[in-house]
Structures are given as C-alpha cells and as structure tokens.
TrEMBL record:
It comes from the Bacteria. The keyword Protein biosynthesis does not apply. This is AI-2E family transporter. The keyword Transport applies. It comes from Clostridium ganghwense. The chain crosses the membrane at residues 7-23, 35-56, 76-97, 164-185, 234-259, 271-299, 319-349.
C-alpha cells in the first residue's frame, strides 16, 4: 500500500504563479494600459447609457407615481422631455452663446480702449493726476490685461473647437448609449434582481444584505444631490439671464451660462462664476460691471439662504468644513468634476466611518459619546 505523501511546498505554487503574472504585468504595463483604454473605448456607449439612465430614473419614477403611467409610457414622456431640452439647446442657446463668444473676442480691443478712455477721463476726479507713475502703471495694466484676456479667450475658443470635433467623433457612441439607456430603464428591476441573486450566491447573506442597504443609501444620496443641484443651478442660471437682460448687460446669456454651471460647485462655485462675469462686463462699462457684481451677489445670497436649502435641504449631512475639504481634495485630484462630486463622496466616506466606529465601539462594549 502506497501512502499519500504531501508534496513539500505545494501550497507555494499559486503564490509563485501570481508573482510571475504580476512581474509580467509590470514589465508590460504599457501594453496593459493600451488594452485597458481600448476596452474602455468599447464600453463607452454603456457608460453613456448608465449615466443617462441614472439621471433620468428619478424623473421617470416621479412621473410613474404622479400620473400612474405604465413603464413604457413614462419612459416615452421622459425621453420626449430630454429630446426637447437638447433641441432647444442646440437650435437656440448654443448658437447665441457661440455668437457671444465670437463677438467678445472681436470686441476686446475696443472695450480695452473704452475702459482706458473712461479711466483717463475720470482720473482727475480720483485725485490721481499728480501721480504720473501710478497712472502709467494702471494704463499698462489695462493694456496688458486686455492682451492676456484676448489670448485666453482665443485659446478657449480653440479648445472648444477641438472638444467639439472630439464630441462629433463620439456622437455615434452617444446615440448608441442613448438607445441602450432606454432598455436599462425599462428592465432596471430585472438587472437589480439578477445582481442580488449573484451576490447572494457568491457571498454570505449578512454581508450582502448590509452591502445592499448601504448601496441604496449611497444611491439615494447621490441621486438627490445631483438632481437637486442641477435644478438649483438651472433656476439660478435662468434668474441670472432674466436679471442681466433687464439690466441690459451685454453677453447676458453667456454670463448666465457661466454662473449656472459654476453654481454646481458648492460654496466656491458662485464666486468662481462671478469673476469672469465681472471681467467680461468691465471692458464694456465699469459701471455696468459694478451692477453685475451687485446683482450676482444678491442672487448668490438668495440661492444660499432660500433656494438652495429649499431644494437640497440637508442631503449630504456635512458641515461647511468637510464640504470645503471635499471640494479642495476633489478639485486637486479630478478638476471641476472632482469639485462637484467630492461632496457626496465625502458624505459616503463619513457614513462608512461612522458605521465602522459604531460597530467597533459596540464590539468593545464602549458607549458612544
């Protein structure tokens, strides 16, 4: 009779195989990176589809509950609203904004001359006429600033054109993703149930249940924050457009678009949007720029004290310190998108840490303070 003898070091074979694969992966990191981005390119339509379906899902649910419509009809209504919004943007808003940008670039030298003339005319009233060096410095600053601003805007226009070309090349992927999103919304319950079945089949029940509860909370936090912030910024942008039009401010639509978009960023966004608005207007008329500054400050106070809390409430449950920290880190790591999404991400981290700490304290029989 032969006895089963355990082969020495047999348990090291998987470790050696994994180490070898990791070594090969590190040596061929460029090939792996190319393969990864190629895979991401193939999956781009599905990313578009998921993002579109995720953003439209709350509106679809609201329409279903409010008007008691079936899924197919509610999806039809939602996509008709979306297509109408896109059509309005492409046919009316985009051409006007493009024209505003072109006019602004062309007229910057004239605006600079007007500002310099206004300064020279009123310099005596400011009691600065005797200080020739200061006057000359200010004139040089105005000339240099106009040149720099023209260069920045020209660069911005070129970047916008490049982005437009890239956007056009990805248009078919967006359309494909747009179509896929319809089926995602239609069969979302089926997808959710299949994912739950897979998780319960692979992992233990307690962990999966806790994960699903946490996932629902994260989804609710993100969707409420993103949709609420979008509605808030859309209203602020419209109010800004109406107010600036009544004030007969040039490039009102362009300024309102900047204010509306930057308003998506908590705390810093309104001030970021106010700076280009004032700079754009100051070359047209310093007095008009002052009116724009006062109006946008008033609009920000209205948003911060009334409109924002009314729409968003306390969706994220973060103090100003943590919000500013989230915006700083998010902006430093991922730019504007990071500044916007940093707040809900920080809220998720806060919830996770609170639960971990509570669980550890409970296991140690320590009462929470």
């Amino acid at each position: 009779m032969f006895k089963n003898k355990k082969i020495p070091y047999l348990n090291l074979i998987p470790i050696l195989i994994i180490s070898f694969l990791l070594f090969k992966a590190i040596n061929n990191i460029e090939i792996l990176a190319e393969g990864f981005w190629f895979l991401m390119s193939i999956l781009t339509p599905f990313f578009w589809a998921f993002g579109t379906a995720y953003l439209l899902n709350p509106l679809m649910i609201h329409i279903e509950k409010r008007f008691k419509l079936k899924r197919g009809l509610s999806i039809l209504v939602v996509y008709m609203i979306l297509i109408g919004f896109i059509t309005l943007t492409v046919t009316i808003i985009s051409p006007t904004i493009t024209k505003n940008i072109g006019d602004l670039v062309d007229n910057i030298p004239n605006f600079a001359k007007q500002t310099e003339s206004w300064f020279n005319t009123n310099v005596k009233n400011l009691n600065l006429a005797n200080n020739a060096n200061l006057v000359e410095s200010i004139n040089n600053f105005l000339t240099t600033s106009s040149d720099k601003l023209t260069s920045i805007l020209n660069t911005g226009v070129n970047v916008a054109l490049t982005k437009a070309i890239n956007f056009t090349s990805s248009f078919l992927k967006m359309i494909f993703g747009f179509i896929i999103s319809v089926y995602m919304l239609k069969d979302k319950e089926i997808f959710k149930n299949n994912i739950k079945k897979f998780l319960y089949a692979v992992f233990d029940q307690e962990s999966v249940t806790a994960f699903l509860i946490f996932g629902d909370e994260v989804n609710k936090l993100f969707s409420q924050y993103i949709i609420g912030k979008f509605i808030d910024s859309l209203i602020i942008g419209l109010l800004c457009a109406i107010g600036l039009t009544l004030l007969k401010t040039p490039y009102a639509l362009l300024i309102s678009l900047i204010v509306g978009i930057t308003n998506m960023i908590p705390y810093f966004g309104p001030f970021i949007g106010m700076i280009p608005a004032v700079i754009i207007t100051i070359f047209y008329s310093p007095i008009q720029a002052l009116k724009v500054l006062v109006f946008i400050l008033f609009l920000q106070q209205f948003d911060g004290l009334y409109l924002g809390p009314k729409i968003l409430g306390d969706k994220v449950g973060l103090s100003p310190f943590w919000i500013i920290l989230a915006i700083t880190f998010g902006g430093g790591l991922f730019g504007v998108l990071g500044m916007f999404l940093g707040v809900p991400v920080m809220a998720v981290i806060k919830i996770s840490l609170q639960r971990l700490i509570s669980k550890r304290l409970k296991n140690k029989n320590i009462k929470e303070i």
